[in-house]
Design goal:
With about 100 residues, the protein is of the alpha/beta class. It has helices at about 10-15, 30-40, 50-55, 60-65, 85-95; strands spanning about 1-5, 20-25, 45-50, 70-75. The chain has one domain (about 1-95): ATPase, V1 complex, subunit F (Rossmann fold, 3-Layer(aba) Sandwich), CATH 3.40.50.10580. It has a 4-stranded parallel sheet, with helices on both faces. The radius of gyration is 13 Å and the shape is globular.
Length: about 100
């Protein structure tokens, strides 16, 4: 199983240094093309996508986050972005405010 990262230039470059392939995107069309490329290759078991890019194609990403079982989609904070606190992550994951 391989990983594929979709994000900005710095994120893709950083992951490439540890052997993860990916595609840098700037527009919604770029994001859609990168997403499709990742799904075409059945060797990619994990798609890592930055939150800013995921927001460009949110309905597609959410479909895989909440209903599909393969590939696993991991959304990471964007470079320079603020990641949510643990309480927010748990609330979003279970759909209940604690």
């Amino acid at each position: 199983m391989e990983y594929f990262v979709i994000g900005n230039d710095d994120t893709v470059l950083g992951f490439s240094l540890v052997g993860v392939s990916g595609q840098a995107v700037r527009t919604e069309q770029d994001a859609t093309a990168a997403w499709d490329k990742a799904l075409e290759n059945k060797d990619y078991g994990v798609i890592i996508i930055t939150s800013d890019v995921a927001d460009l194609i949110r309905p597609t990403v959410d479909r895989f986050l909440f209903s599909e079982s393969f590939p696993l989609v991991v959304e990471i904070p964007s470079a320079g972005g603020k990641s949510p606190d643990l309480r927010t992550l748990v609330n979003d994951a279970i759909g209940v405010s604690i």
